[in-house]
Sequence to fold (134 residues):
Amino acid sequence: SPRRSLAGKVVVIDPGHQSKADLSREPIGPGAAETKEKTAGGSSGVKSRTPEYKITLAISKLLKAKLEANGIKVIMTRTTNNVNLGNIKRAEIANKAHADLFVRIHTDGSANIKVNGVSTLYPAFNKWAAPIYK
Ligand SMILES: [Zn+2]
Fold:
């Protein structure tokens, strides 16, 4: 059964952002000269004003419970909001866990009120992601 085939798989869930942004910079990939902010502030609810880091953690905890109910081992990059994790540290957690899947949860915003819906991002085919691209 599909559930049985998932048993024993390892999924690392990364609830996007954290209570305090870290705008210091780090390379975008191993050996890269290009850098980006370690952890940007994220968006917030248009009506609720709830910050993204709170929503992503709540969603991630729900996802964790559902995956574990199907026999999947789940590791979270964070379980509280008061952390300081850059993208490198988050990736290292997934690599160290030998994750079968690394899922990053975000609730992105847009200044364009005509934009809505769900988006899924996956690794580009480049020298860093080539081994996991398929
Ligand atoms: Zn985000």
Notes: The radius of gyration is 16 Å. The beta strands are 10-15, 22-27, 35-39, 73-76, 101-105. The domain at 2-133 is CATH 3.40.630.40 (Aminopeptidase). Helices lie at 2-6, 52-69, 87-96, 130-133.
